[in-house]
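Appendix B, example 12.
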Amino acid sequence: MLKALAAASVAILLAATTAAIAADAPSTAAVAKNYADIAEASFTDTLIEARKLKAAVDTLIKSPTEDNLVAARKAWIAARVPYMQTEAFRFGNKIVDDWEGRVNAWPLDEGLIDYVSQEYADQGGSNNDLYAANVIANPKLKIGGEEVDATKITKELLSDKLREADGVESNVSTGYHAVEFLLWGQDLNGTGPGAGKRPATDYDTKNCTGGNCDRRAQYLETVTNLLVDDLAFMAAQWGPEGAARKAVMADDGRAGLVALMKGLGSLSYGELAGERMKLGLLIHDPEEEQDCFSDNTHNAHYYDALGIKNVYLGSYKRTDGTIVSGRSASDLVKAKSPEADTRTRAAIDKTLQHMQAIVDRANSVEAYDQMIGEGNAAGNAVVDQTIQALIAQAKEFERDIAALELTAIEFEGSDSLDSPGGVR
């Protein structure tokens, strides 16, 4: 009798708890608003840090010393921290996905921009006539059989004429990675230790190395200014009257919820686990790492994963330490299925633990491009364990979508995961 009463009491308590959780469920509009608020804060932080990068670049150009080059590199790395956290907004929001190639396209054929090693140039670009065009050294170019005047390196030249010129995606002339290459130069170490080693004298017109120091400075200044412009545009899209905010608030915020879940699943699975990590691991190619010139890839991956956590939990810590938070996808999932929310939170935490292991290894043992090197069993394992955690995380997002009764959400895929036998 006592056991029956105890069981009944537990059942009543569980029912009451479930009812209380359901009663506290936020509206989709509240979740979408907080999603937009976090996006606005995240992109605003990227803009703030990019302006600091611009100031450091301006100082380097004015006074091309090794100390100023190091300061500009540090500013670039700092600028990547908030930007990578914005990538959770990419795949579900067309306005972000269409724009992303302007600021974060990779990998790039760096010979389009500046001098490269003879070995690299000799590899040739069978599918890219501009593989080693070197716009910094050549004020006249031919693109698609037409002559292009590059006498003055302008925003229009970089953004309209050179970006994806001849329809080749690796003709990347703008964005973070173009700036990265101009600050570090090529990483010629393969899967050995070391990043790019561009000297500050590449910008010193009085003691010039690499040739064309005036045009190199002009390119760096222009591409950095263009990055600031592009980030200012996107930050405005999430403001009170911005097109991105209006889009996610449609249908009482349901459009935002769909965008949120698609973005989390796609970044977890197809983009981060697949294109950014599994591909490089399959072919052991140091060129297939996100921040390849600076050896900053471990941080890039970590902050991508942190951005996923920010969006699911509805809380973002800004670079000034303040917190933007509100009702979240986690709250909605918990109201429908507390078990599903618990599983998702655990999967996110596990992914971040594995990402931290990559960061710790990069800071104490070897860089990310070494981790994915052929024959490096220990490094390969650390990366692969993280990939598996990301895949498991994406599966939990699929379960969340089912719990929320959302339909027609398909995550971005990757041949590296879906058809690895065909990857070369």
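The beta strands are 140-143, 146-149, 315-317, 323-325. DSSP finds 16 helices and four strands in the chain.
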